[in-house]
Task: inverse folding
């Protein structure tokens, strides 16, 4: 049975109705300047963020199975919240907010209403991107970082709590790195815990810091408790959003860049350039800092995908910093078929890649030794994942392009020869579930994969 202690912030019927007789008389209000004493930092946070926060409503069908009545379905009114992450109408929210909704109704703070469609979603992380079509550019949320959060710092939550649109609550960060099991099928890792009042309908809305930047996406509340709510850290949410908005995911095109977000510096840094890719031909190199693609200023990997979305393969100018020098490059997305041909050619050249690809579903390339020199790392080497096969054990475990494989079982994976030995000549295939170690954003993560049966068992964990 699902763990009833936690509730995702999905739609719930209102528990009461207040009838008001008569009508409200229009009052005459004389506009006047608000004193600076009243215009507190919290007021400014809400004022600046609200135009980019939307309320989401719609009906969905849910199963209502009982022992006496059997399995019946009923219609419920779902509610949630979202944030605009691209001025063309792309909105980030939780997957469970829009899952199964027949018509996604979106309302802005100025009462404008739209019908949205789902662009992409990821049930495992419970995030989704939807889009409204509009002829005018929309205000976007200011995105901060979750890398420097401090317990007890002030936060603000804005959302569609119990259907009360743009409800504002204030609190602090209670704790960091919480793992929450919501049900038998849904769990969240590494959440922010807050005591800001979060209720059903807040799901998908922003958790803001005192500078007005989104530092989390509200997702769950501890049922029956007071002041215990949770949010997905924004750095994780933006990496997932980048994948959900990728031109490869939505337009069957690719660019060949693996981009790392340097949250501390607010920079999009190239981690890998795929051989034979458009980015390779245009001259990109590992370590390049991408400052602008077309008309989009780029601070994270999401911005690269935003810039290329909807360009239909047009070549865009790119501003790059390389070794302190400013360069003018170009970038375009090409049909995904060119990537498949390139990957097939590369795999045919190397048995090492073929073994990893066939068994695990990853394509590997040696990581430069400079990555592991000095005090940067405890590892003597590693292999960067440059491609992950769809529906492979690696994909099911959450491994991603850009991760660095540094160990398998008791061995370090400093070279392709190491992987060949481990997969073909060691007794690893007979061990069943084997632990894999990867480095992602300077953190070591691990996951367990059943090599013998090529089936997955757990998620990537800290």
Result:
């Amino acid at each position: 049975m699902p763990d009833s202690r936690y509730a995702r912030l999905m739609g719930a019927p209102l528990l009461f109705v207040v009838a008001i007789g008569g009508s409200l008389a229009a009052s005459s209000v004389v506009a006047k300047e608000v004193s600076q004493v009243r215009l507190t930092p919290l007021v400014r946070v809400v004022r600046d963020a609200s135009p980019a926060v939307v309320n989401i409503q719609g009906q969905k069908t849910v199963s209502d199975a009982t022992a006496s009545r059997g399995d019946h379905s009923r219609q419920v009114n779902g509610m949630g919240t979202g944030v605009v992450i691209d001025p063309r109408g792309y909105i980030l929210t939780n997957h469970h907010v829009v899952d199964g909704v027949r018509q996604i109704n979106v309302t802005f703070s100025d009462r404008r209403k739209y019908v949205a469609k789902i662009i992409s979603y990821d049930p495992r992380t419970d995030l989704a991107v939807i889009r409204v079509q509009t002829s005018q550019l929309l205000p976007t949320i200011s995105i901060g970082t979750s890398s420097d959060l401090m317990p007890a710092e002030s936060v603000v939550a804005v959302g569609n709590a119990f259907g009360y649109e743009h409800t504002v609550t204030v609190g602090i960060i209670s704790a960091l790195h919480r793992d929450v099991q919501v049900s038998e099928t849904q769990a969240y890792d590494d959440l922010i815990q807050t005591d800001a009042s979060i209720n059903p309908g807040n799901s998908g809305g922003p958790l803001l810091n005192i500078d007005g930047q989104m530092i989390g996406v509200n997702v769950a509340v501890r049922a029956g408790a007071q002041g215990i709510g949770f949010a997905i850290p924004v750095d994780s949410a933006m990496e997932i959003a980048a994948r959900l908005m990728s031109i490869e995911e939505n337009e069957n095109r690719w660019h060949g860049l693996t981009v790392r977000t340097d949250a501390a510096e607010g920079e999009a840094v190239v981690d890998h350039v795929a051989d034979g890719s458009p980015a390779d031909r245009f001259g990109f190199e590992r370590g390049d800092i991408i400052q602008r693609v077309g008309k989009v200023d780029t601070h994270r990997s999401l911005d690269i995908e935003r810039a290329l979305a909807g360009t239909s393969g047009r070549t865009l100018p790119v501003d790059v910093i390389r070794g302190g020098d400013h360069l003018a490059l170009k970038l375009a997305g090409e049909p995904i078929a060119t990537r498949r041909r390139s990957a097939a050619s590369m795999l045919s050249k190397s048995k090492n890649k073929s073994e990893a690809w066939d068994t695990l579903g990853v394509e590997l390339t040696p990581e430069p030794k400079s990555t592991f020199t000095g005090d940067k790392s405890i590892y003597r080497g590693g292999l960067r994942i440059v491609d992950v096969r769809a529906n492979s054990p690696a994909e099911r475990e959450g491994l991603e392009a850009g991760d660095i494989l540094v160990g398998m079982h008791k061995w370090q994976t400093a070279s392709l020869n190491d992987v060949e030995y481990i997969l073909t000549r060691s007794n690893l295939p007979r061990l069943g579930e084997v632990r894999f170690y990867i480095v992602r954003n300077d953190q070591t993560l691990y996951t367990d994969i059943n090599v013998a049966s090529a089936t997955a068992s757990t998620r990537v964990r800290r």
Summary: The longest helix spans residues 336-348. Confidence is low (pLDDT under 50) at residues 10-30, 344-353, 455-462.
